[in-house]
């Protein structure tokens, strides 16, 4: 069995271990992974011709990929995603899209079954086949390349989320038009004077202005 190591952690997390406090709260999770998921992108890249495994599993950035050449599980199951031929003393492989999609479908069904049996999901997800399929595919797509994810989505007939709420733009436009017409018909209202201003004007009747008070009087 092959495994992948995932680093899981948050900045604000620590652990109590006996009477001690571990400041670094990061965890390393060891999870089993099928080696075909790792080999699929390399098979897809060389899908046009038969090649030996050491010619397919080459990567300058990830030279350790060559270790899969001797992986027993990969050698045992590679026929599920590729055509295989014996040429002289060599064994050659070529990616088969139909076989690969069928194998991905089996993994999809297995993941979905596990999710249902564990009953760890919200009832709203489990009760809706489409939602459950989208959730399952989201888990599966983490192990697929972008190109293969698109092909698998179409093969498995995974539907996108449908937006049930729609806006009637015609009604909105009619409403704006009616409001504009109503504003044209009604005359503009004059600004109302404040009560304090009215009282000040009333109290000032019959009094002399400040400039008139200081002006020179003529004899």
UniProtKB/TrEMBL annotation:
Region of interest: Disordered: 174-219
InterPro entries associated with the record = RNase_H2_suB (IPR040456), RNase_H2_suB_wHTH (IPR019024)
The record, for Pfam families, names: RNase_H2-Ydr279
Q: Which GO terms describe its cellular component?
A: nucleoplasm; ribonuclease H2 complex
Question: Which biological process annotations from GO are given for this protein?
Answer: RNA catabolic process
Q: Where is the signal peptide?
A: none
Q: Basic and acidic residues bias: where?
A: 175-196
Which intervals carry biased composition (Polar residues)? 201-210
Q: Which Gene3D superfamilies match?
A: 1.10.20.120
Can you give the residue ranges of the Ribonuclease H2 subunit B wHTH domain?
37-125
Instruction: Describe the subunit structure.
Output: The RNase H2 complex is a heterotrimer composed of the catalytic subunit RNASEH2A and the non-catalytic subunits RNASEH2B and RNASEH2C.
- In which family does this protein belong, per the annotation? Belongs to the RNase H2 subunit B family.
Q: What is this protein called?
A: Ribonuclease H2 subunit B wHTH domain-containing protein
């Amino acid at each position: 069995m092959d495994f992948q190591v995932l680093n899981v952690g948050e900045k604000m997390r620590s652990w109590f271990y006996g009477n001690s406090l571990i400041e670094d709260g990061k965890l390393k999770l060891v999870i089993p992974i099928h080696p075909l998921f790792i080999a699929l992108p390399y098979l897809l890249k060389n899908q046009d011709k038969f090649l030996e495994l050491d010619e397919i599993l080459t990567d300058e950035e990830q030279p350790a990929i060559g270790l899969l050449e001797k992986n027993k599980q990969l050698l045992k199951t590679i026929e599920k995603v590729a055509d295989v031929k014996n040429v002289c003393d060599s064994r050659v492989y070529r990616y088969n899209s139909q076989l690969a999609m069928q194998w991905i479908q089996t993994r999809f069904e297995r993941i979905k079954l596990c999710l249902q049996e564990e009953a760890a999901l919200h009832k709203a997800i489990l009760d809706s086949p489409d939602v459950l399929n989208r959730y399952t595919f989201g888990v599966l797509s983490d192990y697929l390349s972008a190109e293969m994810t698109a092909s698998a989505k179409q093969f498995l007939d995974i539907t996108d989320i449908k937006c049930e709420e729609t806006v009637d733009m015609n009604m909105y436009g009619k409403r704006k038009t009616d409001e504009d017409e109503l504003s044209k018909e009604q005359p503009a209202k004059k600004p109302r004077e404040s009560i304090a201003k009215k009282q000040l004007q009333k109290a000032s009747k019959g009094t002399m202005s400040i400039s008139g008070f200081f002006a020179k009087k003529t004899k």
